[in-house]
Task: inverse folding
């Protein structure tokens, strides 16, 4: 059994910064790709950023230059700067752990204009 626990998120003014983290625990034999998704009200869940075991990163065009994904052992991070109102969403971490897909519980990020 693997669990992902997210932390961070909250309310921030436009132009501000926020950091998210997501730690995996449980029966972990290996970790593979990790990433962050987000879902705004009425919209589909979308990929924000991903990172491979070798550190190769991929970003949605809307966040390039503003968001940075990183990882350390069984934890994935998302540093967000220059936040915009359109970044408001529930953010979910995702990992491939021990050859299985796992999701965090989601954390709300609200950017006020």
Result:
């Amino acid at each position: 059994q693997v669990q992902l626990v997210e932390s961070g998120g909250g309310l921030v003014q436009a132009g501000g910064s926020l950091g998210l983290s997501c730690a995996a625990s449980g029966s972990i034999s290996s970790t593979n790709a990790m990433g962050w998704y987000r879902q705004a009200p009425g919209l589909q869940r979308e990929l924000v950023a991903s990172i491979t075991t070798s550190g190769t990163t991929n970003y949605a065009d809307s966040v390039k230059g503003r968001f940075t994904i990183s990882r350390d052992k069984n934890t994935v991070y998302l540093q967000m700067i220059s936040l915009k109102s359109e970044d408001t969403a529930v953010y979910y971490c995702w990992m491939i752990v021990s050859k299985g897909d796992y999701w965090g519980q989601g954390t709300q990020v609200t950017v006020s204009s």
Observations:
- The mean pLDDT is 96.
